[in-house]
Write a structure and sequence with these properties.
The chain is of the alpha+beta class and about 350 residues long. It is about 30% helix and about 20% strand. Strand 4, helix 3 and strand 5 form a beta-alpha-beta unit. Helix 2 packs parallel to helix 3 and helix 7 packs parallel to helix 9.
């Protein structure tokens, strides 16, 4: 019998809330040396998209991504599963089909026994199996804090490639998963999460974004990305910047895990550090909004949903396609001509 280890107590951050703040990332990714041109590289890190895309020259392209983080839940199997679903999501966000995954593991061998890490890997295998891909290998190191994630390779028909740029004026905005994961995860880490709320975030985070594979084949979807550590407002501002547009979000139509529950934990000061870093990075691009809305809309998501921009005349067609996939989606905003502020919440 392996003793119970609360993994979130061994890390300073949790899930995608560990992500480096957008403005710090800007500094890290600055180009100083000579840039080399690779004509087959369709999408690289200069485009701030979800994954790299390399043209194979036969009408298809390879989609390549990696994502890893520190524990967002205490259960090791759940941790492995969530981290894997989150990494695979980047392939789906590009409209692609995942093919194979490689594990990335950092483990504090002196603090947590390897049998616990084995359970993390088991959770990853289950997530990969659900996505129909093998967990084919990986690399591990002895690290001060537990870290897990995947490098994932996929394939996409070039005509089906979706990017965070491409949204046009009039497009309707949809989000395939409710937000609030960061607040609940912070409540868990602080020991304030009520037992009856224990699985709300987990149940959302383990859901694959497999719908993206289907959405990639829909020409009336003009832009797509997944919502993770930068929060809804962060990933929407990236979409607007890449598309040369602005957006209006109707706060009352944004899907939340449970607004009453989230407000309770906000009252308990369960605000992720990543929320403040997010607003500090891109708040100047967003029209002023109340603090409570800011805490919710900048909340860093782990394994969040797909943010989709749909041509207005095809809104009903999109809803029908989403319904076939078990998704009941409501429009939460729309795209407008570029204005001084990239996003306005009403």
């Amino acid at each position: 019998m392996i003793a119970e280890y609360k993994l979130t107590q061994y890390s300073h951050g949790a899930g995608c809330g560990c992500k480096i703040a957008p403005k710090v990332l800007d500094t890290i990714l600055q180009h100083h040396a000579e840039q080399f041109h690779f004509p087959n590289l369709l999408v690289g890190n200069d485009q701030r998209d979800d994954a790299a895309v390399y043209d194979l020259g036969d009408g298809t392209a390879i989609v390549s991504t990696t994502d890893f983080f520190m524990p967002i839940v205490d259960d090791p199997e759940d941790f492995g599963r969530i981290a894997s679903v989150n990494a695979i999501s980047d392939i789906y966000a590009m409209g692609g089909t995942p093919l194979v995954a490689i594990a990335i593991l950092g483990w504090p061998i002196d603090k947590i026994p390897p049998e616990v890490a084995n359970k993390v890997i088991d959770g990853s295998r289950k997530a990969c199996a659900e996505a129909g891909i093998p967990l084919a290998g990986g690399h591990s190191i002895d690290s001060p804090e537990p870290i897990f994630g995947l490098a994932v390779t996929g394939r996409v028909d070039k005509n089906h490639l979706k990017q965070n740029g491409g949204a046009t004026v009039g497009c309707r905005l949809f989000l395939t998963k409710p937000i609030g994961v960061g607040i609940l995860s912070t409540a868990q880490k602080k020991g304030k999460l009520k037992p009856e709320h224990a699985n709300i975030a987990r149940d959302s985070m383990v859901q694959l974004n497999k719908a993206g594979e289907t959405f990639g084949r829909l020409p009336y979807i003009k832009a797509m990305t997944d919502v993770t550590g930068f929060g809804l407002l962060g990933h929407l501002t990236e979409m607007c910047e890449a598309s040369g547009v602005s957006a209006v979000v109707e706060f009352d139509k944004v899907p939340f895990l449970n607004l009453d529950i989230l407000n309770h934990y906000l009252d308990e000061k369960c605000i992720p550090g990543g929320t403040h870093r997010n607003w500090d990075s891109y708040g100047h691009k967003v029209a002023p909004l109340p603090g409570r809305q800011r805490f919710l809309l900048c909340d860093p998501q782990t394994s969040g949903g797909l943010l989709v921009a749909v041509e207005p005349q095809k809104e009903n067609d999109f809803r029908l396609e989403a319904n076939k996939l078990g998704l009941i989606l409501d429009q939460m905003g729309d795209i407008h001509e570029r204005k001084e502020k990239l996003v306005r919440v009403v």
